Amino acid sequence: MENVKVVAQNRKARHDYFILETMEAGLALMGTEIKSIRAGQISLKEAYIRVDGEEAWLVNAHIAPYDHASRDNHDPIRDKKLLLHKREIQNLYAEVRQKGTTIIPLQVHLRNGRAKVEIAIAKGKKNYDKREAIKKRDAQRDMDRAFK
After folding, report:
1. CA 50 to each of CA 39, 54, 57: distance values in angstroms, whole numbers, following the listed order
2. Per-residue confidence at 1, pLDDT binned at 50, 70, 90?
3. What is d(CA 136, CA 141) in angstroms, rounded to the nearest whole number?
4. What CA–CA distance (Å, rounded) separates 35 from 142?
5. What is the pLDDT of residue 63?
6. Residue-wise burial string across 117-127, b where 16 or more C-beta atoms lie within 10 A, e elsewhere
7. Whole-prediction pTM value?
8. For a designed S-S bond to 41, which of 58, 64, 122, 142 qualifies (C-beta 3.0 to 4.6 A apart)?
9. What is the DSSP string of 31-99?
10. How many beta carbons lie within 10 A of that of residue 43, not counting itself?
């Protein structure tokens, strides 16, 4: 039985992007970073994934400094290395080189005490796509209310 606790979600991701493919990656963290994540002190609002042919990095994810650490605290917006297999990184790199695709983090969760990030290959939505999605969601909500 796996113990999974969602710590942070990127709520705007599914609104701003078409999600093409998702995968899970580990995070290489410092001691105070994992303590802050366990306390829920992480934000993925401006975060994205940068891939250079050999490594993948989580960029602009804000992990708040740990309260009980003194001078050994971490930099809140330090780039965090993603733990992926070499062929997964090569596949991500090939996808990112296509026009209009990017890699974004969807959520950070703890699986059996280890921090994992769910990442997605995504394509940006235009404003009319966002309005269309809102219309569909509202229509579905109205139909559900009518059936109740």
Report:
1. 26, 11, 5
2. low
3. 9
4. 43
5. 87
6. bbbbbbeebee
7. 0.81
8. 64
9. HHHHHHHHTT-EE-TT-EEEEETTEEEEES-EEPPPTT--TTPPPTT--EEEE--HHHHHHHHHHHTST
10. 16
Strand, coil or helix: what is 13? helix
The amino acid at 79:
D
pLDDT at 76 over 80: no
Q: What percentage of the chain carries pLDDT values higher than 90?
A: 45
Q: Which range (14-18, 56-60, 69-73) has the least confidence?
A: 69-73
Which domains does the chain possess? 4-147 (2.40.280.10)
Q: Compare 126 and 84 and report the one with higher pLDDT.
A: 84
112-145 tens-digit pLDDT: 889 999 999 999 888 888 888 889 889 999 999 9
Q: Which of 77, 92, 64, 80 is nearest to 117 (CA)?
A: 80
What does the block give as tokens for 120? 């997605």
**Which residues touch 116 (CB under 8 Å, ≥6 apart)?**
24, 25, 26, 27, 108, 109, 110
Amino acid, res. 140: Q
